[in-house]
Amino acid sequence: MADTRAFLERGNLQSLIDTIRDAGYRCVGPQSRDGAIVFDTLTHVDQLPRGVTADQGPGSYRLGHGGGQRFFAWANGPQALKPLTFRPRETLWRVLRDRDDRLHFEAADAPVTKTAVIGARACDLAALYIQDKHFLQGECADPSYRAARQELFIVAVHCTHAAATCFCASTGDGPRAAYGFDIALTELNDGFVVEVLSSRGRDLAAGLETAPATPVQLEAAAAAVAAAAEAQSRALPAGNLRNLLFARLEHPRWEQVAERCLACGNCTSVCPTCFCSAEHEVPSLDGSHSERTRSWDSCFNESHGRIHGLNVRAATSQRYRQWLTHKLAGWHDQYGRSGCVGCGRCISWCPVGIDITEEAAAICA
Question: Residue 43: what pLDDT?
Answer without folding.
Answer: 97
